[in-house]
Amino acid sequence: MADFERTSDRWVSAGLSVVLHGALIGVLVYGWWSFRHASHPVPTLAIDATVVSARSVRGAAISAPPARTAPAVKPATAPPPPPPTPAEEQTVTRATPPPDEALKRAQEQAAAQARAAAERKAQAEAQHEAEEQAHARAVAAEQQRLAEAKRKAEAQRKLEEQQKAEARRRAQEAKALAEDQQDLTQSIAADEQALSARSGALATWEQLVQARITRAWIRPPTARAGLDCTLFVTQVPGGVITNVKLGPCNGDAAVQQSVIDAAYRASPLPPPPAAAPFERELQIEFKPTD
């Protein structure tokens, strides 16, 4: 914008200078030309003549006798016209405008041209400024539109990333839950299998313990068939019995004491199966078959 103004100012200034100098030169040439032609007036011829009417001419022709032919007279040479008087010269001079008025008109014309050029410059600058403002508004609107589009795209991208992250998290949770469920199922199955094996081994071991106590039992005379007693046995590693307590028992005192003595005599007990841990306190059902 600054370059445009400086260039246009230089062209306007140069144009005004050329117009003003041309006007001054034209005024000077016109004044010189007017003064030269005014100081040399065109000479006029002086003619001596008598004005007569047509009637007198016809009367004279009728009444006058024929005149004798006069000898030819050589016309006199007219004297040169006198120089113009100051009044005539002043009249001729006044017909041409004075140099001051022409200069004034030239200056007014130059000023009018300068004003017109200044108006054209102002109009061009105003139009250029309006175009720049319109361009700036268009650029600002485009930048705002692009920024809004970028903001929406960024928000959409973040939303998609959040949705993807949520989907990955849910998939990972579902996978972990499935793995945990599978592990739990496998663990339950293994525990059930181990418990089944342990139960079978323990059942077999309990039967061995019961058989050993039964073989060590000395049946008293008062024992009846269908004897059923519960023994609470305390053992130490190696199967040595350290304490025996009698629980519910349907035999008399002699039978109950014989069962306790049989448990002590069965010590040490056979070792428990490898799948079962060592238990210090044992509950043994004593049910002899005979």
Look at the helices and sheets and give the structural class: mainly alpha
Total strand segments: 3
List SSEs in N-to-C order: HHHHEEHE
Query: What's the overall average pLDDT, rounded?
Result: 78
The rounded distance between the terminal residues' Cα atoms is 128 Å
State the major sheet. 3 strands, antiparallel
Strand order of the largest sheet: 2-1-3
Account of the protein in words:
- By secondary structure, the chain is mainly alpha-helical.
- Among the domains are: 1-37 and 84-151, no CATH class; 196-286, Fusion Protein Consisting Of Minor Coat Protein, Glycine Rich Linker, Tola, And A His Tag, Chain: A, Domain 2, CATH 3.30.1150.
- The chain contains five helices and three strands; from the N terminus they run ααααββαβ.
- Strands 2-1-3 form a three-stranded antiparallel sheet, covered by helices on one side.
- α1 packs antiparallel against α4 (99-216).
- The chain is rod-shaped, with a radius of gyration of 77 Å.
- The model is unreliable at 42-49, 59-67, 69-73 and 87-93 (pLDDT under 50).
Describe this structure in a few short sentences.
The protein is mainly alpha-helical. Helices cover 65% and strands 8% of the residues.
Question: Which features characterize this protein?
Answer:
Fusion Protein Consisting Of Minor Coat Protein, Glycine Rich Linker, Tola, And A His Tag, Chain: A, Domain 2, mainly alpha, 3-stranded antiparallel beta sheet, 290 residues
